[in-house]
């Protein structure tokens, strides 16, 4: 279920992420209104050890809820792109059909190696999952 009934609700969510997730060192996320019912979220969430989540979301809303119409999320360690998620459809790839268009690009051939992204959605926020994934997997690996 989508907890955001207005763009203001989503703005509060975005701008308070560092308070909700103490491992975020800095947020440059900005919500930019692009019309009466459209906006974009752009910027980065910076974590310890040079880990960065680069965020782009295209938002739309009506009188019922805010939805994500498209997105790109990239995870970086310094200048190395570790993986990314995007909502570009790949209808000819049967391996992605279960979560179409949500998928993740992973090594070894990061541009062409795609796997389904079961935890991403257009109708609920994706950032909590992405932040928790970084905390669990990327930062967790660095601490070992």
Description:
With 144 residues, the chain is α+β, with helices and mostly antiparallel strands. The chain has one domain. The protein has 3 helices and 8 strands; from the N terminus they run H-H-E-E-E-E-E-E-E-E-H. Strands 1, 2, 3, 4, 5, 6, 7 and 8 form an 8-stranded antiparallel beta sheet that branches. The radius of gyration is 15 Å and the shape is globular. The model has no long low-confidence stretch (mean pLDDT 92).
Key attributes of the depicted protein:
single chain, 144 residues, eight-stranded antiparallel sheet, 39% strand
Q: Return residue spans where pLDDT drops below 50 for at least 5 consecutive residues.
A: none
Proportion of residues in helical segments:
10-25%
The major beta sheet can be summarized as:
8 strands, antiparallel
Give the N-terminus to C-terminus distance in angstroms: 36 Å
Beta-strand portion reads 35-45%
List SSEs in N-to-C order: HHEEEEEEEEH
Give the mean pLDDT: 92
Class derived from helix and strand content? alpha+beta
Number of helices: 3
Write the layout of secondary structure elements.
Elements: H1 7-15, H2 17-20, E1 24-27, E2 30-35, E3 38-47, E4 51-61, E5 66-77, E6 80-86, E7 103-105, E8 114-116, H3 127-142
Antiparallel strand pairs: 1-3, 2-3, 3-4, 4-5, 5-6, 6-7, 7-8
Put the structure in a nutshell:
The chain has 144 residues and is of the alpha+beta class.
